[in-house]
């Protein structure tokens, strides 16, 4: 580990100890786990935190997102790798034993992935039953749509529940300014869902382009606190529109 990371970890630990009476211990331990790159530990602390404190503040909300994103991300990549291997093994020179073992390993990963997605959805469902500020509501609905989308990818089917969560978030997000990073992230993820899962390429491009254009028109009013996050998300939206439009043009030329 780099020296600066060790120093950051030590500082965080000392701050956590110094404020133990003011700060929930699970928050401190979750931050320590994040610094150490131990995201399953971080996830465990967030679960403990939620069981004792079902109303999360902004800091806790972000820890929830980081923990599950970093647990589920590697699982999704592992599942895709094993799925590719088992799908293409017949075309290669693999022994049947290797293929069977790969399928078994893929199933193990898939089970863990589903359990984790369902676990965070249970937390999100409970959070959404409380009286929330608009930003919190959009944040949690977007997360819920994301994890329902991941389940749809595994099952190989369209997930209407994901669409419902994203659409509910889009309605609530109308109350947020176009440059709000939570609103921009919602549109980014919803447009990806439309493009990759539903195959609604035109809808995906329209969503992403409109969000980018609306945010660009209000960019001068963007505060310093959100500038970095918002402009990064705008760049991702623009990149997707460029990529998707190019793919559509190639598709039309092939036809």
Fold and architecture overview:
The protein is 82% helix and 0% strand. By secondary structure, it is mainly α. Helix 2 packs across helix 4 (58-88). It is globular. The termini are far apart.
Tell me briefly what this model is.
The protein is mostly helical.
Keywords:
255 residues; mainly alpha; 82% helix
Helix-strand topology string: HHHHHHHHHH
Helix/strand/pairing category: mainly alpha
Strand content: under 5%
Radius of gyration: 21 Å
Binned, the helix content reads over 70%
Write the layout of secondary structure elements.
Blueprint: H1 3-18, H2 25-36, H3 39-52, H4 58-88, H5 96-128, H6 134-155, H7 160-173, H8 181-198, H9 201-217, H10 224-254
Helix pairs in contact: 1-2, 2-3, 2-4, 3-4, 4-5, 4-6, 5-6, 6-7, 6-8, 7-8, 8-9, 8-10, 9-10
């Amino acid at each position: 580990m780099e020296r600066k990371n060790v120093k950051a970890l030590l500082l965080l630990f000392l701050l956590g100890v110094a404020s133990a009476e003011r700060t929930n211990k699970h928050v401190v331990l979750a931050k320590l786990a994040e610094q150490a790159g131990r995201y399953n530990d971080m996830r465990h602390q967030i679960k403990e935190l939620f069981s004792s404190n079902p109303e999360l503040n902004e800091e806790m909300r972000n820890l929830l997102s980081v923990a599950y994103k970093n647990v589920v991300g590697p699982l999704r990549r592992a599942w895709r790798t094993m799925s590719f291997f088992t799908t293409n093994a017949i075309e290669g020179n693999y022994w049947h034993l290797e293929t069977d073992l790969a399928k078994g390993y893929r199933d193990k990963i898939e089970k863990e992935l589903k359990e984790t997605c369902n676990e965070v959805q249970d937390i999100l469902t409970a959070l959404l039953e409380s009286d929330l500020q608009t930003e919190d509501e959009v944040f949690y609905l977007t997360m819920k749509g994301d994890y329902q989308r991941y389940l749809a990818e595994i099952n190989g089917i369209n997930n209407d529940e994901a669409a419902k969560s994203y659409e509910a978030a889009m309605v609530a997000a109308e109350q947020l300014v176009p440059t709000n990073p939570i609103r921009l992230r919602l549109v980014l993820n919803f447009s990806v869902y439309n493009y990759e899962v539903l195959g609604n390429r035109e809808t995906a491009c329209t969503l992403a382009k409109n969000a980018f254009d609306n945010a660009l028109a209000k960019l001068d009013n963007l505060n310093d606190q959100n500038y970095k996050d918002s402009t990064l998300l705008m760049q991702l939206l623009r990149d997707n529109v460029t990529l998707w439009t190019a793919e559509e043009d190639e598709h039309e030329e092939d036809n």
